[in-house]
Amino acid sequence: MPSLNDIRSTFLDYFRRNGHEIVPSSPLVPRNDPTLMFTNSGMVQFKNLFTGLEKRAYTRAATAQKCVRAGGKHNDLDNVGYTARHHTFFEMLGNFSFGDYFKEQAIPYAWELLTREFGLDPKRLLVTVYHTDDEAAAIWKKVAGFSDDRIIRIPTDDNFWRMGPTGPCGPCTEIFFDHGEHVWGGPPGSAEEDGDRFIEIWNLVFMQNEQFEDGSMRALDMQSIDTGMGLERIGAVLQGKHDNYDTDLMRALIEASANATSTDPDGPGKVHHRVIADHLRSTSFLIADGVMPSNEGRGYVLRRIMRRAMRHAHLLGAQDPLMHRLVPALVRQMGTAYPELVRAQALIEETLKLEETRFKQTLDRGLKLLDEAVSRLGEGEPLPGETAFRLYDTYGFPLDLTQDALREMGRTVDVAGFDRAMQEQRAKARAAWAGSGETRDATIWFDLSERHGPTEFLGYETETAEGQI
Ligand code: ATP
Ligand code: MG
Ligand code: MG
Ligand code: MG
Known about the structure:
This protein has helices spanning 4-17, 47-50, 103-117, 134-144, 231-238, 248-261, 270-288, 297-315, 323-334, 339-343, 345-375, 385-395, 399-407, 415-433, 439-452, 458-461; strands at residues 21-22, 60-68, 89-97, 125-130, 151-154, 160-162, 167-178, 198-211, 217-230. It is α+β, with helices and mostly antiparallel strands.
């Protein structure tokens, strides 16, 4: 059975043999791109090649790219622990053509890799195409011999990719694997498509148009290819598992979490182990790429992920800081492919330990308060915004941590009430400071309180240059 490390190598070797330059993963913090919170797809480091702004010695490339989807438009944080296929950190395998080959070659490459190299049963595969993309449909028919019902035409933006409001764009085709009838879910485009039976493994984007501000579009002179396949998803398929978290690599992390807490990896704490394994990867890789926990921007996303992980560790009964003890297991699994993890190991461990030690006391007290508040609620009643705000303000609970906790109980937070409480506190603080003469301190205080606010992320929601897809 191939390990995830083997599968990564097979992918890169295949495209190397087919004339592609193997380019290392770029860091998780995109260089020269303040509009994007984290690198969230393989194409991010090649943006200027697609637009023609930059030329390199090669016109074909392949990568295994570190990705984080925990902020901005692509945010899978809330999916973790709930679906079989989402992580906050994952590796995207991709092949790219910059004005070199196009659809007629990209589809056969994908098909050959999946069915010959990886040996997948063609009967378990099906694809989507953009509803007007007859070209792609015809190529699939020819290359894979698919009947029309296995080339599903999708009219939505799910199958039309844009780099941003303007710039390169085009239709895409997504390849799905059918995990079988025993799993709930329906094919793409159906009412049950959110289930985990048909899992998207690979997305091929055909950049063939350019979008202008006035809404018009023209055909690009230089047609390009951008693809992305989740290593953990193809790994699950090749290891005969349905769930990404049952692959060798994720399983090793889950077992480390179970050992460190003397609990059963598949017992009642199963979800906690999954979340911890996922968050261990995203937090460690972010720290290795220079992000430090803070109260704003990228650092606050990191802090939120860390604190969510700590709550799950707490629920497993961990009395002492846990996350830092799992780092060696991660380094064992991924240190060879990503030497930056080895280099940053001490920093990662220290940072996790310090953050967990600091948060521990307020976490315990805050969770008690939350339990008490919930016990007073009527059926289906949301948690009052003031309570969520108190947890945030006094106990350092990011709003999404409280929401994560409540979701397990089938409850929600009154978010409008939370926002109101936040505004009120800001207004009060301003009034109290007015005329006190301590302008310097006041400025610092306001700065801090603003930065603590949940609205600081709105800036990223408006990011223009979206990674794939
Ligand atoms: P989904 O619809 O399942 O959320 P997506 O369409 O958002 O996936 P793309 O943006 O097309 O995903 O990314 C390309 C590939 O990266 C996907 O086909 C999938 O294999 C993988 N991928 C995307 N998001 C995740 C994630 N959160 N965790 C693991 N793999 C992912
Ligand atoms: Mg998605
Ligand atoms: Mg999708
Ligand atoms: Mg997709």
